[in-house]
Amino acid sequence: MLNWAVRYWPILRLLRQQKADFGSLLEVGSGSVGIGKFYSRPFVGCDLSFLFPPSAPMMPVIASAIKLPFNDRSFDAVVVSDVLEHVPPDQRACVIHETLRVMRNVAVFAFPSGVEASRYDEKLAQTYDLYKTDRPVWLQEHLQYPFPAEDLFDDLPRQWVVTSFGNENVAFHYWVMKREMHRGWNYAFAGLLKLVPRLVEYFLAKADKEPFYRRIVVVTPAFAT
């Protein structure tokens, strides 16, 4: 689906820049597919449960993001994409600290953030209601808690370097999600991703304009070890 490409391709570009896409990779909150939709190398996908059995290249692990069953510094890179907004606010810092505990080189957190992102999710929920279609569980959870903000990372120790950038214009996000409610558009998007992926990536990069739907926060060690 196009919305997966919108949120995963910037992360994959970042991992390539960090030279982290050739090492060990963990995705926290991966679901049954996760980054494996666009990533061909083996990686570990961790979630509370899997809707359907994951397939290669994912190696699935059932676990909670607040207590990861891995040793310290187990993975070169850890991705936490569109997860924090589903976590109760009082547990989000724990997810961040667990992620940093198990990573060596880079951690990437992506999450919807800000007033405009919330407003467009409410608009999307109203669209589901208008079509007399049940709101998906992920959208119900988006509306349950306030969206995360970058200040979650303000209290990290000085051993970490934090940078961030915006991802996906809110109006474009709504346009994509509204069309993916219809099977025909999903087939069309899947065809474009298969036939002309680089062209699609070029145009999706053009959609990274303010106001952003999502923030991508990158955490790296301040000192090489």
What does this protein look like?
The chain has 225 residues and is of the alpha/beta class. The chain has one domain (2-221): 3-Layer(aba) Sandwich (Rossmann fold). It is built from seven helices and seven strands. The chain has helices spanning 2-17, 92-102, 115-130, 137-142, 170-179, 183-195, 197-206, and strands spanning 25-28, 43-47, 58-62, 75-81, 103-112, 160-169, 212-221. It has a seven-stranded mixed beta sheet with strand order 3-2-1-4-5-7-6, with helices on both faces. Strand 4 (75-81), helix 2 and strand 5 form a beta-alpha-beta unit. Helix 3 packs parallel to helix 5 (170-179). The longest helix is centred in the N-terminal third of the chain and has 16 residues, at 2-17. The protein is globular. It starts with a helix and ends with a strand. The model has no long low-confidence stretch (mean pLDDT 94).
Mean pLDDT: 94
Tell me the structural class. Answer: alpha/beta
The number of helical elements comes to 7
| Low-confidence parts | none
Rg on CA atoms, Å? 17 Å
Tell me about the biggest sheet?
7 strands, mixed
Written as H for each helix and E for each strand, in order along the chain, the element string is HEEEEHEHHEHHHE
CATH fourth-tier homologous superfamily: Vaccinia Virus protein VP39
- Report how far apart the termini are: 39 Å
Strand-residue proportion: 15-25%
Helix content: 25-40%
**Proper CATH architecture:** 3-Layer(aba) Sandwich
How does the overall form come out from the CA principal axes?
globular
User: How many domains would you count in the coordinates?
Assistant: 1
Overall strand count: 7
CATH topological fold name:
Rossmann fold
